[in-house]
Write a sequence for this structure.
């Protein structure tokens, strides 16, 4: 390092989180799913080495390439020392840039989505860690799952990915399009985790880089397979992202219908309408995109309006068994003065959800506010005791929050 | 101007467990800090050190190869700095990003023979 350096780099200007996913996917496709642990260590070591090697007057021209070479060489060294044989992989100094630029993250998600004997939740967690570059603690903060439960899920996933059955499937490298719906589900789950984060370390409840990465990968998926449902998923993402600038004001959470619409990002709204496409067979994302776009364009939310939205939620309920959809339906029924129907559905879904589920509790407390004030108050107190994120506590104290 | 060696003792355990996002922030923090020191004229040189190393001890020259995992901390890098006095360097060292993840900085004034 030279004190007289005139270099004015102010930062590294590379997203390590995004790089993690790209490096993981590249190395996975080169060395196979039998080396997942070693690949994870190699990437962490490459990042650590960058910390020590990159100086204001000594930054590689191509940082992605540098990280890839260092991670790959580290991986080879690990394999060499573990197998105690002369490895056939040569230590490399440069790498074909075109190959590196190929973003294999989507391919990786497609592959993991097709794995059998593994739950969707486990797949989402594994992908959050290795494709979206989230740390176990961050996943825990986002999902409210314990770190132990996350470690167990990841280890379970690794066991499956290291199995011979999966290795055979991996070697074929075929992209089975019947799994696109699972990939969409995964991207949707990842997006929602970013859009409604429980991470206490960030001031906002939005982790927008996760949302934007989910959107970018959904676009890649759409370009590749041109599925109608993916286009509608993108439309839904765009409508949600458009509201991000209005979701917070003065460090306070602003609920959807109280947001200043002038703050909404008009470009993303336009993009949402551009991607929204009527399907031949109804799909979840199309209906959800319609509901969100209606909420964003309606002039007056009267009984007629809420009954129209209820009809759309009834359609959704026939397509998906998601309890969140049913909770949203309950909220709409309550708005349409059909509270007893809402209470009936709430009672049915309570058993499906973990005890003290935040969103369920919020809606139930609000619906019961007029008919059973004591019960409503009890629920609010329980929520205040269980929520640690200050911004949410403030919001619960001041009013009620709803997600659509 | 006096010269000082700033040794960065890193907390290995903490660094092994940080997320890619935190690693990026740490790398940026080091980068910006080193840039600022250079612009202010305090920085002479500095580098990161590899985890591996070799210790040679005693008359028999017993050789022991690292990394020395019995230690929770490891010297991960150094900066050679210059300033008018130790107090200035202490203020500079307090801002070293090494502290963000449980690390320790050690300031060792370079012996000035004129003052001996």
């Amino acid at each position: 390092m030279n004190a007289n350096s005139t270099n004015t780099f102010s930062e590294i200007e590379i997203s390590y989180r995004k790089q993690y996913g790209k490096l993981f996917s590249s190395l996975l496709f080169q060395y196979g799913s039998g080396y997942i642990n070693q690949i994870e260590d190699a990437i962490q070591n490459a990042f650590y080495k960058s910390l020590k090697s990159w100086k204001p007057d000594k930054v590689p021209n191509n940082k992605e390439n540098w990280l890839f070479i260092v991670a790959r060489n580290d991986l080879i060294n690990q394999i060499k020392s573990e197998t105690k044989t002369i490895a056939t992989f040569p230590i490399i100094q440069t790498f074909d840039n075109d190959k590196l630029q190929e973003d294999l993250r989507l391919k990786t998600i497609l592959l993991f989505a097709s794995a059998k004997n593994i739950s969707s939740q486990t797949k989402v967690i594994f992908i959050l860690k290795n494709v979206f570059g989230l740390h176990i603690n961050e996943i825990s903060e986002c999902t409210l799952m314990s770190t132990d439960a996350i470690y167990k899920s990841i280890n379970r996933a690794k066991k499956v990915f290291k199995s011979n059955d999966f290795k055979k499937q991996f070697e074929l490298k075929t992209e089975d399009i019947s799994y696109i719906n699972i990939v969409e589900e995964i991207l949707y789950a990842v997006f929602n985790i970013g859009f409604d984060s429980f991470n206490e370390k960030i001031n906002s409840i939005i982790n927008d880089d996760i949302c934007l990465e989910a959107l970018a990968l959904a676009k890649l998926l759409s370009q590749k397979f041109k599925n109608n449902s993916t286009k509608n998923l993108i439309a839904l993402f765009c409508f949600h992202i458009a509201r991000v600038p209005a979701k917070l004001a003065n460090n306070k959470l602003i609920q959807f219908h109280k947001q200043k619409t002038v703050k909404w990002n008009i470009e993303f709204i336009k993009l949402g309408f551009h991607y929204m496409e009527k399907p031949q067979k109804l799909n979840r994302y199309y209906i959800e995109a319609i509901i969100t776009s209606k909420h964003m364009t309606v002039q007056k939310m009267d009984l007629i309006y809420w009954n129209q939205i209820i009809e759309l939620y009834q359609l959704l309920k026939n397509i998906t068994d998601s309890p969140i959809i049913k909770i949203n339906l309950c909220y709409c029924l309550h708005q349409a003065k059909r509270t007893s129907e809402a209470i009936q559905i709430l009672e049915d879904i309570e058993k499906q959800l973990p005890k003290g589920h935040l969103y369920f509790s919020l809606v139930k407390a609000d619906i019961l506010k007029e008919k059973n004030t004591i019960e409503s108050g009890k629920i609010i107190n329980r929520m205040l005791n269980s929520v640690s994120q200050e911004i949410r506590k403030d919001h619960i104290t001041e009013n009620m929050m709803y997600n659509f | 101007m006096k010269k000082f060696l700033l040794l960065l003792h890193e907390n290995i355990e903490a660094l092994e467990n940080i997320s890619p996002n935190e690693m990026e922030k740490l790398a940026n923090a080091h980068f910006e800090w080193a840039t600022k020191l250079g612009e202010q004229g305090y920085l002479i040189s500095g580098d990161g050190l590899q985890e591996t190393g070799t210790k040679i001890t005693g008359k028999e020259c017993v050789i022991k190869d690292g990394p020395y995992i019995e230690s929770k901390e490891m010297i991960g890098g150094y900066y050679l700095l210059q300033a008018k006095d130790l107090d200035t360097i202490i203020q500079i060292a307090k801002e070293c990003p090494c502290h963000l993840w449980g690390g320790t900085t050690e300031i060792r004034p370079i012996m000035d023979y004129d003052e001996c």
In short: Strands of chain B lie at 2-11, 43-48, 54-57, 62-65, 73-83, 104-109. The interface with chain A takes residues 15-24, 26-28, 30-32, 34-35, 37-38, 41-49, 76-77 of chain B (CB under 8 Å). The first strand of chain B starts at residue 2 and ends at 11.
